[in-house]
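Q: Entry one of two.
A:
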Amino acid sequence: MPPRHVRTLVAVLSAACLALTAAGTALAGDDGMAAAAPRSVGSNWYAAAPYLMPLDNDPPDAASVMDATGLKAFQLAFVLAPNGGGCAPTWDGTDPVGSDTAVAGVISAIRAKGGDVSASIGGYGGTKLGQTCGSPEATAAAYQQVVDKYGLKALDFDLEEPEYENAAAIHNEIGAAKILQQKNPGIYLSVTTAGTADGTGWFGKQMLDEARSQSFTPDNFSIMPFDGGFSGAASQTAALAKFNSLLRATFGWDEATAYAHEGISQMNGRSDTGEYFTQADFQTVLDFATTHHMARFTNWSVNRDRQCSPPDNNGRTSGTCSSVPQGAYDFTAYSVRFAGATPPTTPPTTPPTTPPGSCAAPAYSAGTVYVGGNTVSYNGRTWQAKWWTQGERPSTGGSGVWHDLGAC
């Protein structure tokens, strides 16, 4: 089992202590503790939130990370099916969401400092709810419990091995994501999958095809260009360019629109397979992401964002340190820079060419979130959104989100 999934007694005790400390700021519920009401943070923060395991891998104090870096959002990992089977959400397959107090305490501490969290679904290893729930509707109902429990405004679908090799499971996951998008207007959704030199592999491409077939468009599709023969930032940016081509071919987007829906999740320091990604590599990828107005920049993980002792960790990959020389939270600082440099709420687009005053519906705006039923004017025609969308210009192609109502 990879280092990032190594559970330690220290981690459990640390998370429990943090939960007790934050209990005073939590709201009481039938289960004993619910997370404090969410603070409002921009979607650029959800797009920049690095992964944090709140119960495993010796989790650092989230409030201290925020103080040290200015970070405002974390991607909490991972929501899974119970290890013994079933369709109820758990943390790491062992801690039921319904009776949770520990993660709720972590969330309350983050929100008390003006931040917020997203929950990540899936990850590497373990049994996923898409595999055990019998339908998209049942899968969505399980995830809705997580949204309701913590008052979430963001979710990440981390679809990778072994789940993404199961077509039925991926159908359930994508279908669930679409249902959640419809039932929770404005929720920020990312879909994360494995990266390869070709952008993503065969199963990743099948996942994109499934999203297209279900007419589902998340805020971004992100790849993880590590653990696949990568060597530094140049190989990662090359994979991002290839992935952009895949998004364009799959959804009919132009280059700018594809980048506005594209993200990256990196692994800081030494990867599971012995690749090394330093602070200089992160800077190169950050420059690429901001130059191309990409939608997401995150990494695995805050738990690893500290120097090992000894610094090289004897050439091993650890779930609790990076295995490269660094200061505490050096890599998290790049997420903060991305959040300030590239708000994904304003993706690039060609300005509308509809003459002012010629259409009754408001002019299309790339920075506006539209939900099913919203109408806009664009190029002298009126268009109606079929479901949630942002940054995709009205047309009869692309993801199919827009319905042409005719000339103004």
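Q: Entry two of two.
A:
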Amino acid sequence: MTDFDATLDAIGLLCPLPVLKARKRLEPLPEGGVLRILADDPAAIIDVPHFCAEAGHGFLGMEESGAHQIYLIQKGTA
């Protein structure tokens, strides 16, 4: 996966908390900064890409890592 500027550990959090915390964690990042999210909520597979599309951020992808997933979001201009 790509380099990242910050990490959000959302393991154990259920919808909508991973996305709400991601929104807050993206705020201080510069435009183009990359946030790595660790999550195990099954709904995150749908919620994270949807959040990116709605908020103007780039969804760089997801990969499985054992019992959780790793998502990468690139901060947009929104």
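A: Comment on entry two: The radius of gyration is 11 Å. Helices lie at 17-26, 44-55.
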